[in-house]
Amino acid sequence: MNKLWAGRSLEQTAALADDFNSSIAVDSRMYRQDIAGSLAHAAMLAARGIISQADADAITDGLGGILADLESGALPVDPAAEDIHMFVEAELTRRIGDAGKRLHTARSRNDQVAVDLRLYLRGETEQTVRLIRALLRVLLDKAAAHAGDIMPGYTHLQRAQPVTFGHHMLAWAAMLRRDIGRLEDAAGRMNISPLGCCALAGTTYHTDRQMTARQLGFDGVCANSLDGVADRDYCVELAAALSLLMVHLSRCSEELILWSSWEFQFVELSDAYSTGSSIMPQKKNPDMAELTRGKTGRVVGDLMSLLTMLKGLPLAYNKDMQEDKEAIFDAFDTAKLCLQVFAPMVETMTVRTDRLRHAAAGGFINATDLADYLVGKGLPFREAYQITGRLVAHCIQTGHTLENLPLADYQAVCPAFDEALYAAVDLEACVARRVSEGGTGPDSVAAQLAELKAYLGG
Ligand code: ARG
Description:
Layout (H helix, E strand, L loop, with lengths): L14 H7 L2 H4 L3 H17 L5 H20 L11 H13 L1 H5 L6 H37 L4 E6 L2 E7 H26 L18 H7 L9 H6 L2 H27 L7 E2 L18 H25 L12 H24 L2 E2 L1 H9 L5 H10 L4 H18 L8 H7 L7 H5 L1 H6 L9 H14 L3
Antiparallel strand pairs: 1-2, 3-4
Helix pairs in contact: 3-4, 3-7, 3-9, 4-5, 7-8, 7-13, 7-20, 8-11, 8-20, 11-12, 11-13, 12-13, 15-16
The site of arginine has 10 residues, from α7.
């Protein structure tokens, strides 16, 4: 096959080598960014008198036509092309002749691909943040609807202390907000232009890198041309942020899977976001949550691919780096897909408040409150803790709860007990007493709700 770079080689490349080398199946999705980069570059070349205005106009028109035809499908992407950059340039030259051959003056594919990828990932990050925000809205509504619904909170998956379902949803929201922060932070660092770094050393032409950077919406330019074409840190940072986002979605999924089990029945997923079994008629499976949990491995794998691909590379560009796109595109595709399914799955699930309350009534989750009650009577906490432990053991033996154990039994263990203890172990009161900032008490949950609402723009 004849290449734009044919010249030095005397013989043709093998078909197998062409296939192996080609990345167009992966990178054709960056055609808009490739054309945007070329438009900025052509305008700059003309502004600096490096090419004529007439050539720049022909390039601009030609690229506009190619963009329109790619959008409409009139121009199919040639799967045999080496990559999207070669494809667009060859098509441009086919359409406008010599002017098309001038576009690549003072540019290399090394800075071209780096520009395209940064622009493309900027858009992907924006979309992902929008999807996380949509999920946060769902969580806000769920939290508000169940702000006062008591459930057992767990540590070690053992019933620990009472919390509200709303408080739990707000914990999910807090995790996801950090993910937005990490994505935006990485995107901010990514948003500088490598255009004009050329192959690695810059160029002998008097280019204006600030002009192309401005036109493409970058905040500045890469300060070192070698680094500009060798840097893929932003892929790693974004993949790391996406990995953690997926780990969060996976932990939330795990809770939904557990909660929708027959043993818990804390939530029931809607028919629209669960599946049946091919053999067991009674089954309702949380497949969407399980797939989200399962796909987390892919995204973590993408991060590992990127780190491993980069770790031994000398500066500047190496062909290994072509592998960056498959990994980072898969990470974004997967995370966006999971977010799209996760939000309506949570939105349409039914929260079984009766089951939450029932579970909260067992498991002695008010034991800490009973110990605190004794501390209020003047006992040191460690002593109060031991007395309460003995009472719990006694309840288990006699089939009581702390709420219905007779006062005489209490006083047999510690004479400091009086009738007021029953108010202390009342679950509603236990929750209401958690007044500390960020806690599960009603005022604290209301404050967290208001803060999340303000974050989402009211
Ligand atoms: N398809 C290549 C990539 O994605 C474009 C850059 C190629 N540059 C080069 N000098 N071969 O990395």
